Amino acid sequence: MEPAKGKMRTSSNLLLRITDICKVHSVGVAENVGGKPKADSTGGSSEDGAHLKVHPHQVSDHESCSGSSTARYEEAVVEKLLEAISCLKLAYVKVQQAHVPYDPEKIAAAGEHFASELEGTSGLKDLYVSANKWSNPMYQSHVSSRIHEHQKLAVDLQADICKKDSELVVLRAELEELERSNMELKEEVDRRAMHTENKIGIGKGELMDVFIELFEGSSKHIHDFTKLVVSWMKVSGWDLGISKFPIDKSVVYEKRSHKKYGVEAYFARAMLMGTKEEYFSMDSYDNVMSFKDPFDALMEAPNSAFGRFCREKYLVAVPRSMEDSFLGNLDHRAFVERGGHPRTQFYQTFAKMARHVWALLTVARYLKPRAEMFFVKTGVQFQKKHMESVPAKLTTEEAKFSVGFTVMPGFKIGCTVIRCKVYLSTLDARHF
């Protein structure tokens, strides 16, 4: 029964407050005409109204929205209404007092105060309406439905955010991959642009001019590789005079150092002769020749036509005994036989020579008419039209010599002759 007693006590208090408010009377005008009003007649100091000045209590939205305190909220609204009425009556008394004696400034101030109190009183309507709305089950159901609707929308939005985040991760990965690919393509374009001057392409001029350029390049690189081999032979103690290089023993060398031309002739024959047709392809020509270092072409496509040509020619041109003597083992040969390309100075120098020879033989097969290789036999009389002596001799002396052996073969392309390079000896001359 305690709640009932509490409710009865609250109702009694409200009735007493209403009774007190009804005791407030208007100021008598004739009572103090011409004199000053009593001290207890001023706003807030009269006996009847002094205890009516109550500090208003702000009711929070949390309290008003709580379903368990709706009745307390209504009582608070009524309490606030009674306080507002008390303040409004006291403000009206001040307006009356401002007229006795008549004071325009006090009348204006009292009027503004009265209007402010009246505006505050009218605001209590919204509090009461709010209390009634929250006490209405239909309104509560409507608000609850809206809350659930917004919660569901928030869940959907969160799921959409997670989905977008996942898509963003995928797109970011794709972007990084595209940027990496673009960087690689840019590097490839820069590399090709940088190596354009080193590329011996068919488009640079007539095919015949390209072939002649390749012939000179092949001859130079065979000579350079021979110099490397000869230097290693000297270190390893090889005797060029008793080597197994296929040079006619009847050849008389002008100088002992000229025996190196016999080694050069050996590598020229090994590289230029006995090559399979399947190793030559114009489709891969431009790509192979675009690399500044031919070893990079081998790394890009180890089993390409050029890669197979390079492996086969290494096994043919470099004898087992030579490799074992130079390197102390046969690891290079074993690696090449397994399909690899050793990353060593010796093999890289060989690859430079092999690329020019491969390009020369490739273009030779696509010339119209096709280029035909020729060698000059030992003992043939020297003819300047078809031959070039190495080392170069005086023109008046060349007629006294005959061919000892062909150092670099020549080519015939229709009526055009690219002279071979020969070493001249003092053998008896035979007709060519």
Oligomer: single chain
Sheet with the most strands, sense and barrel status: 3 strands, antiparallel
Spatial arrangement of strands, main beta sheet: 1-4-5
Order of helices and strands: HHHHHHHHHHHHHHEEHEEEE
Helix content: 55-70%
**Shape category:** rod-shaped
Number of domains: 3
Distance between the termini: 143 Å
Structure description:
By secondary structure, the chain is mainly alpha-helical. 58% of the residues lie in helices and 6% in strands. It is built from 15 helices and six strands. Strand 4 and strand 5 (416-418) form a beta hairpin. Helix 3 (70-98) runs antiparallel to helix 4 (104-122). Mean pLDDT is 75; it is low at 1-12, 24-68, 196-205 and 428-432.
Brief characterization of the structure:
The chain has 432 residues and is mainly α.
What's the topology here?
Blueprint: H1 2-22, H2 61-65, H3 70-98, H4 104-122, H5 124-135, H6 137-194, H7 207-236, H8 260-272, H9 285-289, H10 294-300, H11 305-317, H12 320-327, H13 331-337, H14 345-364, E1 372-374, E2 387-389, H15 395-398, E3 402-408, E4 410-413, E5 416-418, E6 420-425
Parallel strand pairs: 2-6
Antiparallel strand pairs: 1-4, 3-6, 4-5
Name some characteristics of this structure.
432 residues, 58% helix, three-stranded antiparallel sheet, mainly alpha, disordered C terminus
